[in-house]
Write a structure and sequence with these properties.
By secondary structure, this protein is α/β, with parallel strands linked by helices. The protein contains 19 helices and 15 strands.
Length: 551
């Protein structure tokens, strides 16, 4: 709840006790914001919820509550009952304006809250194979996951950012063999490119770099040793590029967990995990393979853990990986997976439940597909390379701010089209430009020649314009918005808040003069402008977008 919602909640609780002599439960005391601002700043349907308990008509309950609330809630300037039984509240100007000094004192910490209560959360996202550069499909995942982490960190969660490096398995073998093929070709030698190998220019470039650094020493080397070297060296180089591109995109990770970690010491962690599952009676042997009884936990069929040829299914190290996350002290696990992993969610959740973890330990957000569109046509390939558009190219084309904004402004549960032409536009039709321009306008007022220095004050009684009151209400609700968006993992809701905020501010800027002939009124409006700047900058930061002072 915002501070004002908490005030109203507590006042309604007291008034229900005063008028009717009962203790209302939390479900009764819900406070919300009316869709129509003309109805007031806040509203409660407590009277309607009490109707069944008190056996009275809602309006007969609301009327005496309103009279008592006028005494228990002095922060409200207007309280009225409206059919069918809502009680609407309009906060006093003094109550609203008190938030200005709170914001100015908090600065960069404005919006931070403790709603997470120190919960340990591990967020794993992007996790693309280290076999090439990140492309635009990874960009949506990267922006969304980073914004979730920013919201968590601002809301008092203990959040670990983790990238799971898939450096084991057949894909890495194919990558290594592809590099060897290009390495041989560099020296005019033949080496077959695998049927499912990698053909990108990246592979050719890395092979040429290795040839330049190592010479032809690997042409006659032991094949097993050569493959291991090219796998590791190729992965090292590709992972360095991935890290660079993510950094350009404003995305950072604290933990880089490698799949090969679970194969160390003769795959001890995987063996221990399989033994634990066996001891719990979760597995059985059939046709030479080891199976997990996943149908007993809600899956549509049992799943193979170890194939008949002795190799492990992908699910097996993944179970060990998630069990290790919990072992490290993270009780809540968040994974962001691509749309092609949709069917994999149930089996992972079944496995963790079967292994004894509480239901709900793992939450998976599926990131739906994104299309690049220009002039109504889908753009699949880079104009420069003829390959898929990379994350770096997207940042260089649109700018990191625009790319971040567009990727988090749409819920990832739905497919999206990214309008490249709109994202490049530097005018008010582009939402990220519209938002950043509001910040630039605020800064220009405060730094304009002749603008007096703001003098701290406790009196903002001159802020009576409807748009000023609306801005103060939006500012006061910012910490609650942060907490709600963190809880729901919905950074797109933060972009909606920003758009509501800047729309109100642009309207205010165009209709109200901040610098007036009245020094006291000017000072109050400068205080409001500074509070708006702090709020907008902090909100933009939560979705990874900068707040430029000049545009």
């Amino acid at each position: 709840m915002s501070d004002f919602e908490k005030l109203i909640h507590d006042a309604v609780k007291v008034s229900v006790k005063n008028v009717f002599g009962i203790d209302a439960d939390e479900a009764v005391l819900n406070v919300e914001t009316p869709r129509d601002p003309k109805m007031g700043d806040y509203a409660t349907g407590a009277a309607m919820r009490l109707a069944r308990v008190l056996h009275k008509a809602p309006m007969d309950i609301a009327a005496p509550l309103v009279e008592d609330l006028k005494k228990t809630l002095p922060e409200a300037s207007e309280i009225e009952a409206v059919r069918p039984g809502f009680i609407n509240f309009r906060m006093s100007k003094n109550a609203l304006s008190s938030v200005i000094n709170t914001v100015l004192a908090a600065g960069d910490d404005w919006g931070k809250n403790e709603s997470g209560k120190g919960a340990n959360v591990l967020v794993e996202w992007v996790s693309a194979n280290p076999t090439g550069r990140l492309h635009c499909g990874h960009a949506r995942n990267a922006a969304w996951g980073d914004s979730i982490c920013r919201l968590y960190e601002a809301s008092g969660y203990n959040c670990l950012r983790e990238y799971y490096v898939n450096d084991a398995g057949n894909q890495m073998v194919m990558f290594g063999e592809s590099l060897i093929s290009r390495y041989f070709r560099h020296f005019g030698k033949e080496y077959p490119l695998p049927e499912n190998g990698y053909h990108a220019q990246d592979v050719i470039d890395i092979a040429d770099e290795i040839a330049a650094a190592e010479g032809d020493k690997w042409l006659d080397a032991d094949p097993k040793e050569r493959l291991e070297y090219f796998k590791k060296e190729g992965e090292r180089r590709e992972l360095a590029k991935i890290k660079e591109d993510l950094e350009l995109f404003g995305v950072t990770f604290e933990s880089w967990m490698r799949e090969t970690f679970f194969y160390e010491n003769d795959a001890k962690r995987i063996r221990d995990c399989l033994q634990m599952m066996k001891d719990k009676g979760l597995t059985y042997e059939k046709d030479g393979a080891l199976w997990f009884k996943s149908t007993e936990y809600g899956d549509d069929k049992d799943r193979v853990l170890r194939k008949s040829d002795g190799t492990l299914a992908y699910l097996t190290p993944d179970i060990a990986n998630h069990m290790y996350k919990v072992e490290r002290g993270y009780e809540k696990l968040i994974d962001l997976w691509g749309a092609d992993h949709h069917s994999y969610v149930t089996r992972m959740q079944c496995a963790l439940k079967a292994c004894g973890l509480p239901e709900g330990t793992l939450t998976v957000d599926i990131i739906q597909m994104v299309r690049m569109v220009e002039d109504g046509e889908e753009v699949k390939m880079s104009k420069r390379t003829g390959n898929a558009i990379t994350l770096r190219e997207l940042c260089e084309d649109l700018g990191t701010d625009a790319a971040r904004w567009f990727f988090v402004s749409k819920d990832v549960a739905t497919q999206m089209d990214l309008d490249l032409k709109l994202a490049r536009t530097k005018d008010m039709n582009n939402p990220v430009f519209y938002a950043q321009y509001a910040y630039s306008r605020m800064h220009s007022i405060l730094t304009r020649e002749g603008t007096p220095e703001f003098a701290p004050t406790d009196d903002y009684s001159g802020l009576t314009d409807a748009k000023e009151l609306r801005l103060m209400k939006l500012i006061s609700e910012f910490p609650k918005e942060v907490a709600d968006d963190a809880r729901d993992r919905k950074p797109n809701k933060m972009t909606e808040y920003i758009m509501d905020f800047v729309k109100t501010y642009h309207s205010y800027y165009n209709s109200v003069r901040v610098l007036t002939d009245d020094p006291e009124l000017t000072n109050e409006r400068l205080g409001l402008t500074k509070a708006c700047m702090v709020t907008l900058k902090n909100a933009l930061h939560l979705v990874g977008v900068s707040a430029p002072e000049k545009m």
